Amino acid sequence: MVLLEKGLEKIHFAHMALKIFTSKPSDKKLIEAICLGGKDREWATGQLLDQHIFFVKKLSKEFHQPEEWVLDAYTDALMLLLEHVTQGRFRGESKLSTYLYQILFNKCRDLLKKPSTNIVELNEWTENWEASSRTLLKSFIEKEEVTTLHLYLDKIGSTCKNILLDWGYWGYKMEEIAQRVGLENADQAKKKKYKCLQKLREIIEN
What architecture is the 26-113 domain classified under in CATH? Predict the structure, then answer.
């Protein structure tokens, strides 16, 4: 038992040492990965999430709100950051960490000022949607309602959810999406994506 505890202790210290001496990726590398999409964007998102999760505890104290409340806002802020980078709205005038913190701070402040989005407002968004474009998903991201979007995606099934997230968030190509969800080719993935968008739209409108 003592030997086992010592072994676990060594693994723990080795893991901590690895975290200490592993250099963080530069903003340039993160931005390039985000713009490439797919697995590169997922990697960059994971890096940003891990590096700046302490924002949650900090703003929880500042706004006198539970950490779960800030964590929801943090998810919205991170998705909005990805959107700004891919659209070229982030111009590199500040560090990514500073930019993310400002988005999160503003998001938390706005949440305290207004009630959560209701179904009437969501229905209004659907009027100008095009089921075959990323407008559907981006409308949620731009309105900083990523958490709300996930609630609706959960209702259309895991396959549809994965297809729409891979396509709308992570920027995977249709060939890659087909492989990831077990479809034969890109054409099948496109047809499935269209049906998934239709299901999502129907759920939100109803």
Answer: Orthogonal Bundle (1.10)
